[in-house]
Automatic annotation (TrEMBL):
<dbReference type="InterPro" id="IPR043128">
    <property type="entry name" value="Rev_trsase/Diguanyl_cyclase"/>
</dbReference>
<dbReference type="InterPro" id="IPR035919">
    <property type="entry name" value="EAL_sf"/>
</dbReference>
<protein>
    <submittedName>
        <fullName>GGDEF domain-containing protein</fullName>
    </submittedName>
</protein>
<dbReference type="InterPro" id="IPR052155">
    <property type="entry name" value="Biofilm_reg_signaling"/>
</dbReference>
<dbReference type="Pfam" id="PF00990">
    <property type="entry name" value="GGDEF"/>
</dbReference>
<dbReference type="InterPro" id="IPR029787">
    <property type="entry name" value="Nucleotide_cyclase"/>
</dbReference>
<feature type="domain" description="GGDEF">
    <location>
        <begin position="62"/>
        <end position="195"/>
    </location>
</feature>
<feature type="domain" description="EAL">
    <location>
        <begin position="204"/>
        <end position="454"/>
    </location>
</feature>
<dbReference type="InterPro" id="IPR000160">
    <property type="entry name" value="GGDEF_dom"/>
</dbReference>
<dbReference type="Pfam" id="PF00563">
    <property type="entry name" value="EAL"/>
</dbReference>
<dbReference type="InterPro" id="IPR001633">
    <property type="entry name" value="EAL_dom"/>
</dbReference>
Length: 471
């Protein structure tokens, strides 16, 4: 009840009061609508966003062929022209793409410089190729921005979306996965979605996630392939080869895990492991038997290579000259002062430096004269072909002459039969490596092989057949 200041009741009518508050929420509703619109429409280009595209395709209840379009080197263009003109380029591309889409097609901006075109219907392989070619043709004509003609290349990933792939979001993801394959092609190009490629990427991600665990748990180990003197027949050394025995996936190919570890930098950890284990193993071999460790270009340029080698030599007590460090020609892509200083530092450590797979990379016959090398390894492709190809035989002979003129020893790789070995020996090649002399084997087997070679040779020449049987 209402009361006066003196406590007197003023009225007995109406013992409760209802208060009504009115607020104008128009501005808030407009703001929420704007936010909702921003999630579906890209503010810069006016195209659909990823969410807007997926919702639009889902609303039709039909299948779509989806094309993810990447503007090649757009980041570089942005840096040169500035963000404002870069935005203008995106808007121009979006406008051209929207005109191409017409009434039925859908267009979207999936990421910074990745656009998307979706057309109703499930296209077969040929139709998908025609549609991709039509999209690439959109970039044949330069884009005019403030009086500047700008030429662009595009890479396209294509996918025919249907219920078999799941909901429309999966169609877009499939097109983006295909785009990853297309990006591996120089210049313009396109790739269709390949489920097998997706499985390979999934496997790569799994292996990448388990590299560290594998190293910590002792899943990695070394095998060694013999290197034999072609004159005495004795074991001269062995090349360390890294292997990975995964507990559930089995033996993982080096071609698979090396490329993954180079991409994420873990190759430096694997290289450190190889030096440590190889030097340790070689201490149990005769003093005339060396151990060779191949260095990844990533490890050479980014890793703490010198410290790793010093630590391995110190821990094992191996004489430095018995460690042969094999570098590949790919490190010479950038011929910097840092490259030469690292090679000189390796030479100062006392280790032997060998150039691996010579003839397959970037170095020239004259260029190697400036490098602090001790050995040259002729790639197995030359050894394999020289028997039947006189031109290849001439190349091998020329390389041999050059190497000896520079004071380098030569190793022939991939020797698989006696004829190859005899031809290399006749040319003056000092050592051979390949299945003729032995497959990759354990450190203990290398020790036994060295004893067998010494027993067979007894200081005299022996037949290659006997050496092959010993290997």
């Amino acid at each position: 009840p209402f009361e006066s200041r003196g406590g007197q009741g003023l009225s007995s009518v109406g013992s409760h009061v209802t208060c009504i508050s009115l607020r104008d929420v128009t501005a808030r509703r407009l703001y929420e609508t704007k936010l909702e619109e921003m999630t579906r429409i890209d503010d810069l280009t006016g195209l659909l966003t990823r969410r807007g595209l997926i919702d639009a395709m889902a609303a039709t209840g039909r299948g779509f062929s989806v094309f993810a379009i990447d503007l090649h080197r757009f980041g570089h263009l942005n840096e040169m022209l500035g963000r404002e003109k870069g935005d203008g380029v995106l808007q121009a591309v979006a406008a051209r793409l929207r005109r191409h889409a017409g009434i039925d097609g859908l267009t979207a901006r999936l990421a910074g410089d990745v656009l998307c075109f979706a057309t109703p219907g499930i296209e077969g392989e040929d139709a998908l190729a025609d549609s991709a070619a039509d999209l690439l043709a959109l970039f044949d004509t330069p884009f005019g921005i403030d009086g500047i003609k700008i030429e662009l290349n595009a890479r396209i990933g294509a996918c025919s979306g249907s219920d078999n792939l799941g909901h429309p979001g999966k169609w877009v993801e499939a097109a983006e996965l295909a785009l990853l394959d297309a990006k591996r092609v120089g210049g313009s190009g396109w790739r269709a979605y390949d489920p097998a490629s997706t499985l390979r990427r999934a496997r790569s991600r799994l292996l990448e996630a388990e590299l560290r665990t594998g190293l910590d748990q002792g899943q990695f180990f070394l095998l060694f392939q013999p290197q034999v003197s072609l004159t005495s027949g004795r074991l001269a050394g062995a090349e360390a080869l890294l292997r990975w025995q995964h507990p559930t996936l089995g033996m993982i190919s080096p071609a698979e895990f090396i490329s993954i570890s180079e991409a994420n930098g873990f190759i430096c950890d694997l290289g450190q492991f190889m030096f440590r284990e190889a030097c340790k193993a070689a201490t149990s071999w005769p003093s005339h038997v060396s151990v060779a460790v191949n260095i990844s270009p990533v490890q050479f340029l980014r890793g703490d290579l010198l410290s790793d080698i010093r630590a391995a030599l110190a821990a094992s007590g191996l004489a430095p000259h018995r460690l042969h460090v094999e570098i590949t020609e790919s490190i010479f892509v950038e011929r910097s002062e840092e490259l030469f200083s690292k090679l000189d530092a390796l030479r100062d450590l006392g280790v032997t430096i060998a150039l691996d797979d010579f003839g397959t990379g970037y170095s020239s016959l004259s260029y190697i004269s400036s490098l602090p090398l001790d050995k040259l390894k002729i790639d197995q492709s030359f050894v394999r072909e020289m028997v039947s190809d006189p031109a290849t035989q001439s190349i091998v002979q020329a390389v041999m002459t050059l190497a000896h003129g520079l004071g380098l020893k030569v190793v022939g790789e991939g020797v698989e039969n006696a004829l190859q070995s005899e031809m290399l020996a006749a040319m003056g090649c000092e050592e051979g490596q390949g299945y003729l002399f032995g497959r990759p084997q354990s450190a203990r087997q290398i020790q036994a092989l060295s004893a067998a070679h010494s027993l067979l040779s007894g200081g005299h020449d022996v037949s290659l057949g006997a050496l092959a049987q010993a290997g």
